[in-house]
Amino acid sequence: MTLIVRDLRPDVPADPEGFARVRRLALPYILFTSESVRHNALHTHPDAHYRPLVAEEDGEIIGTAQVLLAYDSSEPGQGVLNIYVRPDRAGRGAGGLLLRTAEEYLASLGATKVLGWVLDEPANRAFAERHGYRASRSAHFLRLDLVAAGLPPLPPTPPGVELRSAADFADDPRPLFELDAETLQDEPGDLDFESRGYDDWLARTWDHPLLNRELTMAACVGGRPVAFSTAYTDGDGRYSTAMTGTARAHRGKGLAKLAKLHSLHRARAAGVTEAFTGNDAGNDPMIAINKWLGYEICATEVHHVRELG
Questions:
Q1: Which pLDDT band, with edges at 50, 70 and 90, does 188 fall under?
Q2: What's the mean pLDDT in 88-103?
Q3: pTM score over 0.85
Q4: What number does CATH give the domain 3-111?
Q5: Which CATH superfamily is domain 144-300 in?
């Protein structure tokens, strides 16, 4: 058995395909396709110094790592590292080799702290703790079976509110960017995020190959979006909510819930069979909305942190 870790080659089709396959087997609650893997490798902001890695055993990709600096955080020196190994290839050293390579790279960039998500399972948590990582906050993955589960019916749209898809903003998506930038500041988590500008948003969000503009819905007042729910689809019957939020001046009116419900109804009508979303474990209002929509918690992950010295 020959095990190596190397950089992903985005223009060699087998590499993005192998990366996406590992991620789907190890973490089926987040959508990955070869196109999205390639897009992330080529279009992540240069300040992130993004370096996707693969662990290869006898020519087969069995593990992956996403390694970057948190370039959109106000606190410098924070590295982000997420490692996943195929469940049927665990215990062969791929995770440890990926971790060592990634930490050395982040240290060379001046990172003083590394943060990464770990599935809340004994073996995964033991791996993180064995390598000096301490547990922080948790988040839940939720799943909705759009075939078996019945969605709540669509309620009347409130007076003065219009539901529009992201496709309706194709000529000028800047209003969606401005709403996304505002809600990003209130996203709960260990990292505080801030927008890096319109061009970065276009590359990272608007032009992302998983973004489904027909299913991404916004509640608009006076023609401007004030609440939204961003939808990703993988072309294989699976849907994921990338972000749901409301402008501060319009919160408490149920508009984000309305936008997400419209998105899910459209998704089901388009043949989507399975929907996923994720919530910080302390985000009770959003968890309540998702449970009302019919989602059920299917897995939990724990953020882990290590100081680099």
A1: low
A2: 95
A3: yes
A4: 3.40.630.30
A5: Gcn5-related N-acetyltransferase (GNAT) (3.40.630.30)
Largest CA distance in the chain: 66
Q: Which residues pair with 68 in a beta bridge?
A: 80
Ordered by start, the domain boundaries in the chain are 3-111, 144-300
What is the spatial distance between Cα 30 and Cα 22, in angstroms, rounded to a whole number? 12
Task: State how far the alpha carbon of 301 is from the alpha carbons of 82, 136, 140, in Å.
Answer: 12, 10, 6
CA–CA–CA angle 285, 289, 293 (5° rounding): 170
What are the Cα distances from residue 225, in Å, to 58, 216, 265?
51, 12, 19
Decide if 303 contacts 282 (C-beta within 8 A).
no
pLDDT in tens, 21-52: 999 999 999 999 999 999 999 999 999 999 99
CA atoms within 13 A on the CB side of 129: 11
Distance CA 47, CA 242 (A): 22
How many alpha carbons lie under 13 Å from residue 103 in its C-beta half-sphere? 19
Contacts of 172 (CB under 8 A, 6+ apart): none
- The DSSP code for 70 is -
> Is-contact 193 73, C-beta < 8 A?
yes
